[in-house]
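Handout, section B. The chain below has 158 residues.
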Amino acid sequence: MNKTKFKIVLHTPEIPGNTGSIGRTCVALGLELILIKPYGFDIDEKAVRRAGLDYWKHVSIKEYENWEEFLSTEKPDREKLLFFENNVNQNHYEANYAEDCYLIFGAETKGLPKPFYTEYEDRMYHLPMFSEHIRSLNLSNTATAVAYEALRHINYSK
């Protein structure tokens, strides 16, 4: 089975069910899940495991205390950091996905920290939404859609 090398990063996730569902996607695709604290829940919470079902024990997880620790430990090249957020100009189809990129998502209710919008403005992407009745998409749905788009871009083949 091919294992992908890109990673999903959740910056200060708040909803255990979303983290569990994203963990399940990570298991399905052979991805590492990186969690950056603080969380809005206890990582051992039943809701995380319930959403991840019996796959949760197979999730490859790294945890970091903060963004700075993530950067200093992972040492990612800036061009490998891809941020996904509402209300930015670039569409996620335009992202330069690579096998070793990091797909980064912010907290469900707050998004990414405001300084990221300045520092990484050229690295931010959105998923299209065409209804004025929708403010945002569910985080786990968004992360899964982006992960599969990344697979397509890096010419995944089983």
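Note. The beta strands are 7-11, 32-36, 60-64, 81-84, 90-91, 102-105, 124-126. Compare this with the example in section A.
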